[in-house]
Design brief:
Length: 225
């Protein structure tokens, strides 16, 4: 058969990555509920793949904190706890302070133009905003900060916890629907701190910015662990 007739199938490794992306999006998008049992056979049937890529994806998602693998019981969607929030918050604070201190001197007109475009979207919201849209705009703003920090390892750490931050932001926005009041103003304040081009001012701006979200999350009625 001619080579140009059949498209090559993705390798097992590539397929595992694709399945991971799909399941991660389903978890962070609320398609699966905290504590829900993720059965390999059912997932394989639904995604029309063998159980190998499913098993690989669940293992990766466990490393990211989205899934718990329980011996002899299988995989379960992780349940949000106060310990999770504290650990991710402190890790995010550490890497985002570094990212901000570097990005503030590297963003230039192009980087701030990208931030301003997101801020305009935030500012234009004048009615009740869907929690998913609030999360999308929030992360879109911070993605720019990480992209311009010019630090590959920091970027990779952010990508490894971004999914968990998504879950936290969704929980926060659902319980405290105050995006119309603070979404634009808080991100604009951070943008202005970055624009000073002073690494210390950028770090102080980050500390103030993410502390507010953390204080709201701590008020959620969650188990300790």
């Amino acid at each position: 058969m001619p080579d140009d007739v059949v498209s090559p199938l993705p390798s097992q490794r590539a397929l595992g990555g694709l399945v991971t992306d799909v399941l991660r999006e389903m978890i962070t998008g609320g398609k699966f509920q905290p504590g829900q049992h993720l059965k390999e056979a059912e997932l394989a049937d639904a995604l029309k793949v063998s159980r190998g890529p499913i098993r690989e994806a669940l293992s990766r998602l466990e490393e990211e904190g989205h899934v718990e693998l329980r011996r002899h019981r299988g995989a379960f969607v992780s349940t949000l706890t106060k310990t999770d929030i504290e650990e991710v918050h402190t890790l995010r604070g550490a890497i985002e302070r570094l990212a901000a201190s570097r990005a503030c001197t590297r963003m230039g007109d192009r980087g701030f133009a990208e931030m301003d475009a997101v801020l305009e979207q935030m500012k234009s919201v004048d009615t009740k905003i869907d929690p998913e849209d609030a999360v999308r705009l929030d992360l879109q703003f911070h993605d720019i900060l990480y992209r311009y920090c010019d630090h590959g390892r920091v970027q990779r750490v952010w990508e490894s916890i971004r999914g968990q931050v998504t879950v936290f932001l969704r929980a926060r926005n659902a319980s405290f629907p105050d995006f119309l009041d603070v979404g634009y103003s808080e991100h604009k304040e951070l943008r202005d701190a970055l624009a000073l081009g002073d690494p210390q001012a950028a770090q102080d701006g980050i500390d103030k910015h993410i502390q507010g979200a953390y204080e709201r999350l701590k008020r959620l009625d969650l188990p300790e662990r």
